Design the sequence.
DNA sequence: GCCCTAAATGTTATCGTTAACGCCTTTCCG
DNA sequence: CGGAAAGGCGTTAACGATAACATTTAGGGC
């Protein structure tokens, strides 16, 4: 079965081994090698072993460019994201990467510098040019939705995370529910109403949290204080906190994320207001630092990694199952009560 | 110049346009189209315009798989990283992504689940299989160094970030200097010595910070307290802080990152020690939250994004310039003094 | 004008894989 | 035991771009 020994030399040639080399060494055709790699059952155990051995000996690895040229699949998923420095997006990205790896796909990331339609369109275009097999969008700016969709070629499956785009499957955490839990928790503690430091208005998460907060207040017939606007940063929370401390009427503050809550805590502390004795403060996200703030922060825990994983599951279903876009899924968050909230001083 | 009209139909066929289609429409050969795209100056303005117009009309885009098959370059850089949920790595990754995008490359990310040699080797292998043109390693675990290097095919340029691997160009922040600045700052405030909550021993950053701290203490002839070990998390800082609070002798604590510093602050607060009146605390990293902790944290600012950018610059030099590995570069960090440190109570 | 050289363009081969199809064995049944 | 059906492999042709070489065109000096 073995051919002329001279052909078998495993001499380190400059070029990497290709299928033909493996085939020659194993005494079969390159097509058989391909079959061993793609549908092992279709080749007899005997020859399969020989081929596998040859592959091992030569240290052969398939050329992915050649594969994707002919199969029209790159085994790569594209992720469009905005600020992966924030804890939430970073965690979701992490979940995505792990899930993607498990599925045998690679991840190509396009990070938006600014959340503009133009940047988004370019990013999608770049990923599509790389012929990714699917796309995950973690760019929670609602305003960009249309741009994305317009730029999308119809045949690439897409899943949006934390962003309901028309006609695109999405995975998200129930922001409205989370905000409700927070607000109701504070009302239950006896607070007359709850002030809110919201996130940027072009983020869908921020809007969802506002909605939940509003709904809870209205259902309980409470006055709705004017909302303060932050940009997710501790600094913006600090500025908002200063305003709240100045007017002195707030006894309960719901910040739309933990970083802003930290800023609020800082501002209140500087103004001489005690938390939770004078003012209760709640955050959102449950970043690892939340439990160690002063005081430990009551917040809402979001299963970021699970969201990332889930988005990949859905995406792969669409890609491999060829199914029509599956149902969007919404994951519930959980309220984590710590020491930054207490019943209102009477 | 224009051929048979029937051939020109821009009818939406199922398949995407290829170079040949553009060529036909422009009345040139596919090779001329290729030239227009790759070396525009080599084709006459007149024909170039025609080709460009045809490209526009057809919405033509080059097939990257075909390109990389023949050029043996994928225009993709691979990044191996460990925990991108941490602020530092996330920021560097961000810098890398932006710089890579600017250079017209794509980024493929392989995220290590655990910092083991096996996982690292697999990750590198996966990226190499995708035929990335270069590799950035943001995996500061020294123990894995050998594994990486062994798994590396000799011909893929590599740059390591925050990790000095033998024979690999690296970019890093001067951790030793940063730790020195911290320690000297505290000694200058009159503290007898400085306690240290270090990071995991397999992280090179953690070791660098220990070295700087030790050096500063020794140069000043101070006693070296036993170091406490954390894992970068606020929780581990909290545990360390409890120990420090218990023995009551510490007046100055240098935590190896801001999250652990937060934990230390929390533990001291619970133990009734005031910061900075009773104990001074310093962190490292200058995360955006540091300025809003209670009290605002004195820390060391690291130019993470710049490190990321720089690593790409170097990598691209090696790839495109074909240069031998350039000099490794070390970037100095800066001490940021806030309110968590003060002169020792006398 | 003619020839020579350089610039502009075209032709053909090639990258390394999978798809499509065909041939030769087996195998199994009547 | 003949023949059909299936299984196992081989041969050849894509895939869509660039490389290498061949050819045509343009320009300039005499």
Sequence:
């Amino acid at each position: 079965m073995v051919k002329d020994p001279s052909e078998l030399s495993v001499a380190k040639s400059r070029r990497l081994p290709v299928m033909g080399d493996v085939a020659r060494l194993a005494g079969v055709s390159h097509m058989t090698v391909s079959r061993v790699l793609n549908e092992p059952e279709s080749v007899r155990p005997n020859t399969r072993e020989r081929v596998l051995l040859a592959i091992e000996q030569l240290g052969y690895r398939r050329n992915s460019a050649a594969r994707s040229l002919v199969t029209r699949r790159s085994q790569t998923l594209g992720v469009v994201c905005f600020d992966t420095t924030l804890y939430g997006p970073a965690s979701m990205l992490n979940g995505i990467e792990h899930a993607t790896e498990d599925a045998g796909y690679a991840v190509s990331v396009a990070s938006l510098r600014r959340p503009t339609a133009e940047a988004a369109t370019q990013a999608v275009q770049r990923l599509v040019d790389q012929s990714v097999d699917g796309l995950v969008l973690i760019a929670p700016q609602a305003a960009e939705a249309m741009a994305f969709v317009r730029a999308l070629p119809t045949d690439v499956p897409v899943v949006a995370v934390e962003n309901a785009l028309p006609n695109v499957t999405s995975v998200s955490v129930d922001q409205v529910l989370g905000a409700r839990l927070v607000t109701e928790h504070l009302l239950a503690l006896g607070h007359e109403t709850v002030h809110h430091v919201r996130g940027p208005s072009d983020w869908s998460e921020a809007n969802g949290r506002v909605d939940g907060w509003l709904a809870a207040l209205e259902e309980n017939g409470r006055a709705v204080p004017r909302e303060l606007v932050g940009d997710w940063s501790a600094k913006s929370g600090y500025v908002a906190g200063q305003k709240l401390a100045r007017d002195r009427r707030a006894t309960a503050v719901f910040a739309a994320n933990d970083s802003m809550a930290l800023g609020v805590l800082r501002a209140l502390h500087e103004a001489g207001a005690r938390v939770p004795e004078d003012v209760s403060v709640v955050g959102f996200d449950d970043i690892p630092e939340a439990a160690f703030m002063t005081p430990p922060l009551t917040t809402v825990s979001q299963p970021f990694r699970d969201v990332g994983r889930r988005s990949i599951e859905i995406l792969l279903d669409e890609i491999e199952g060829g199914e029509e876009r599956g149902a969007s899924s919404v994951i519930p968050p959980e309220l984590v009560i710590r020491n930054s909230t207490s019943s209102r001083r009477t």
